[in-house]
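Hi all, long-time lurker, first post. I run a small reading group and we've been trying to get comfortable going from sequence to structure in the token notation. Rather than ask abstract questions, I figured I'd post a concrete chain and ask someone more experienced to write out its structure so we can walk through it together at our next meeting. Sequence below, copied exactly:
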Amino acid sequence: MCSDSLDQGRGIGYIDDMSKPPFPPVALGQIPPPKSPAPVENDRDARLKAALRANLQRRKAQARQRDAADDEQT
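-- Answer (accepted) --
Happy to help. Here is the structure in token form:
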């Protein structure tokens, strides 16, 4: 009464499901499916960029003032 195979009579259906690609293949000349949309710039990024730009301008102005002061002394 003991069978040679414990899985006798059972099909392995998951192999067929996993062997299929997750999306249909794209034929030549067709546009591939779109990827995730580009992230939208949020307010925080805009504020950080503005703060960095202002800081750089302030540092450049300070450097120009130091150079001008050094030129007057020499």
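A couple of things your group might point at:
The chain is about 50% helix and 0% strand.
Helices lie at 14-19, 43-73.
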